[in-house]
Design a protein that fits this description.
The complex is a heterodimer of chains A (80) and B (347). Chain A has 2 helices and 4 strands; from the N terminus they run βαβαββ. Chain A has one domain: TusA-like domain (Translation Initiation Factor IF3, 2-Layer Sandwich), CATH 3.30.110.40. Chain B is an alpha/beta fold and 347 residues long. Chain B has 2 domains: 207 residues, 3-Layer(aba) Sandwich (Rossmann fold); 103 residues, no CATH class. In chain B, 32% of the residues lie in helices and 16% in strands. In chain B, the strands form 2 sheets. Chain B has a 6-stranded antiparallel sheet, covered by helices on one side. Classes of the chains: A alpha+beta (80), B alpha/beta (347). Bound molecules: iron/sulfur cluster.
Chain lengths: 80, 347
């Protein structure tokens, strides 16, 4: 399945989560999103948001101040 | 079998909203949280930016408290819609630029919209009579319920027994007897209830949930409006007010100077949209220029920046200026002395 990439560089918490939430609302279950952030808070917040909404955090990669998180959309019927 | 009722809880990240959601969830109601992002939320921004204190995990307290309660949380961006609330509050401001009463009414009206769009039954807030001077006085709570349009679909579980029964209580969706009767400024009942539920690590509610209650922040915002001759703001403006040292040596421009590496990295993200200065002969911070430079201002700005660089004692410091057209210019300047930085420049 295609992976959608979200650029959340220079956005501060909770904006990366808001962007992810908006994107997830438009995708079917099992779609994948790659989100790139620079706010270190994303390392806590995106996994927490995924846990409470039933989405899967597949992987996290950190390099030169940039965080990339891969998320697989779950089946939670989450409104935006 | 009666169908399970659904409530949307306003989650600020503080203890009260967390307890209110939990109290109702414990009664078998399906609760989901909603949190509004105005752009002014305290939410870890400066902590996330500044390197100092990085050993503490930077987490969004609304998300974290929702997870503790075991509910979903929807974070809603209301930055644009919030502008008229801040710029023209019908009920005025609190101690600084915080329009708390209008803000509450607005957020509850937005929660009502969400409730109706998602077919929920009622709204929960963590308000407690008399807890906050402006927005939680007993005579103010009915105003919030009425002007938000929520009327008696607004339940305040922490002080419900001190208030007339609301629709969820009258209809038996929740048991009024199991709601609470907190009032006043004491935090002890909340802390006891937190202990009862096993919540130990929660955000301490301070003066308010946003930067608008902060005197220094409010002064910077007032300065921004005064310098532009209009009361308006963009997202970048309000983010930048949270970061760096702000100095206005002339009415038509100010400098935003990073105070440490984390702020420098953050401000670097704005280099494409703002003219900026860096010292090239000596290590030093990045400074963004907000406004326009007139005759002689470039040198003035460079001398100020040199003062905050490691070349402050040097005879001359080289400063690179990148202007609005992204053209570069080198300036050789004498750093200002501490006395030359006028106290009134500091915003
Ligand atoms: S402190 Fe800020 S967010 Fe909280 S009610 Fe007041 S204006 Fe609104």
């Amino acid at each position: 399945m295609k992976t959608v990439t979200l650029n959340a560089r220079h956005l501060l918490c909770p904006l990366p989560v808001i962007r992810l939430q908006q994107q997830v609302a438009e995708l079917a279950a099992e779609s994948r999103i790659e989100i790139i952030c620079t706010d270190p808070g994303a390392l806590q917040d995106i996994p927490a948001w995924c846990r409470i909404h039933g989405h899967r955090l597949l992987a996290v990669h950190e390099e030169e101040g940039e965080l990339t998180l891969w998320v697989e959309v779950g089946n939670s019927g989450t409104p935006a | 079998m009666s169908h399970q009722r659904r409530a949307v809880a306003l989650i600020s990240g503080g203890l009260d909203s967390m307890l209110a959601a939990k109290v109702v969830k414990e009664q078998g109601v399906q609760v989901e949280g909603i949190n509004f992002f105005t752009g002014f939320c305290v939410e870890g921004h400066t902590h996330a930016i500044r390197r100092k204190g990085r050993e503490r995990p930077k987490r969004n307290s609304a998300l974290w408290s929702a997870e503790q309660v075991g509910i979903k949380l929807h974070i809603i961006d209301i930055v644009e819609e919030y502008k008229p609330i801040l710029l023209n509050p019908q009920h005025g401001y609190g101690q600084h630029l915080n329009p708390c009463l209008d803000c509450k009414i607005f957020m509850i009206s937005k929660a009502l919209e969400w409730m109706e769009a998602n077919r929920f039954d009622f709204i929960i807030t963590g308000e407690v009579i008399g807890q906050r001077p402006m927005s939680q006085r007993k005579n103010v709570l009915p105003v919030v319920a009425r002007q938000s349009g929520a009327e008696d679909r607004l339940l305040r579980p922490l002080c419900a027994r001190n208030l007339p029964p609301t629709l969820p209580e009258r209809e038996g969706w929740v048991n009024r007897e199991q709601l609470l009767a907190f009032s006043g400024r004491s935090r002890k009942p909340q802390m006891a209830l937190a202990q009862h539920y096993g919540f130990s690590d929660y955000a301490q509610p301070a003066g308010g949930c946003c930067f608008l209650t902060d005197r220094r922040y409010a002064e910077k915002l007032t300065d921004l409006w005064a310098s532009r001759g209009e009361r308006d703001y963009q997202m970048d403006d309000i983010m930048l007010l949270k970061v760096g040292r702000h100095l206005r040596p002339r009415p038509h421009f100010k400098l935003i100077i990073a105070r440490e590496e984390g702020e420098g990295n953050f401000l670097a993200g704005y280099r494409r949209s703002y003219p900026h200065l860096t010292t090239t002969s000596h290590p030093g911070p990045l400074a963004l220029i907000d406004g326009s430079l007139q005759q002689g201002d470039a040198e003035l700005a460079a001398r100020i920046l040199a003062r905050y660089s490691q070349g402050r004692e040097a005879e001359r410091v080289t400063v690179e200026l990148v202007d609005h057209q992204r053209e570069k210019r080198q300036l050789e300047v004498v750093p200002m002395t501490a006395n030359e930085i006028a106290p009134e420049w500091q915003i």
